[in-house]
Amino acid sequence: MYYKPTLKTNNTNQDSGSMKKIGVTRKTHELLLKTVQDNYDELAAIHEEIRKASSDTSVRVNHHATELERERSLQIILYHNKQKLKKSIVVPRPKSKNSIQLGSQVKLNFAGKIVEFIIDGMSLSKDICSLSSPLGRVLTGKKVGDALVFKEQNVEILAIT
Hints:
alpha/beta
């Protein structure tokens, strides 16, 4: 049986060595936790496939090598996701809706198309824009009604919630 460790997070502002903390919303933190847990589950399934393949002499050597390569790739992905989790610190949703900041939900008219997303410390899905991304940096501090040009596209801020 594969050992699946309990995921623990340390969401304090205390410095853990030289690792810089990145503020994220609760949603992003929970998504990151789920991603790491899914990585562990997939790794356990791969280990089971390798165990079965090792005991079955009819399984081709190429299949076994493929599973070992999948395992190595997933271990690298898992390592990077765990590092992101260690760096993340949950920040409260902003109380002020006056300007765009970490945790703001933003509605934009982006070149005639209405788009909505959350400004967050890490971008883990399509509905999240990283605060440190080019768009996130441009939007930070802007207010409802502000208009700007981003990558030669007209952008208007319609709402901040």
